[in-house]
Amino acid sequence: MKGFNWAYDLNGCKTPILKPFVIPTATVIEQGELVLHTPGTGIAVVAGTDFNDPFMGSAVNAHAANSGTELIVSASPTAVYEHGCGNIITATGGSTSTFVVAGLLPQTNNLWKGGYVEVVTCAADSTLIGKRINVTASTGSSGTLTFSAQQAAFASGDTARLCPGKLAIGEYGWDLDADGMNVDWDTSGGEALVLVDVDPINMKSFWMARLHQFGNHGAAI
Known about the structure:
about 220 residues
C-alpha cells in the first residue's frame, strides 16, 4: 500500500483515532497521504520540500476532485505510520560492492548500515532487478552504500529502493517528495517526521509526527 498508513499508536490504542475534517471540494488527496488542516480552509496537502510544518495525520481514504467536502484522517499525535519505502534513489556511481548516491542525506557515517537496497534497474545485469541487498556500511560524505560483492557492477543511472536500518531510528530532517507519498532521502530541511522503527528485510519504515497540530509542535519548534 502506498503512502503513510496507520500501524499502531504509542498511547496503546489498538485502533486508529479517526476524525472527519472539512476539505475543499477541488482538493485531491491520495489514500495514505500526509495532510494538514488550515483554519478557514480545511484539509491541505503537505507535499514538497521543506516539510517543517506540523501536520494533522494521514488520509484514511482518497479524495478526488469535486467528490465531497469531508475527509477522514488518522489524527492522533502519537500515531505511528507504516511506509513501504517506495523512495527511488539513482546511482551516481558504483561497483560490485557499492551503490553511490552523491546527494544522499544526512551525511552521517553508517546511518544506512543494516538497511537494504532493492534493485529497480541495473544496466549491467537485469537479473539483479528485484534483489534485496543488505547494507553493511555507509559513508556519509560520498553517499556510498557498501555491501557484499554482487555478480555485476552498479553504475551511474542505476536505480533502487532504499530502506534504512536501525541505526537511523530517531533521525529526522528529510523532506517529502513532490506528491507527499514518499520521504525524499536526498532532500533535507524537513522537521515534522521522525523515524521510529524499521523492518528493512521487508522494506518497511515507521514514522510519527515530531510536529503535530494537536500535539507537540509548540514545544518542538
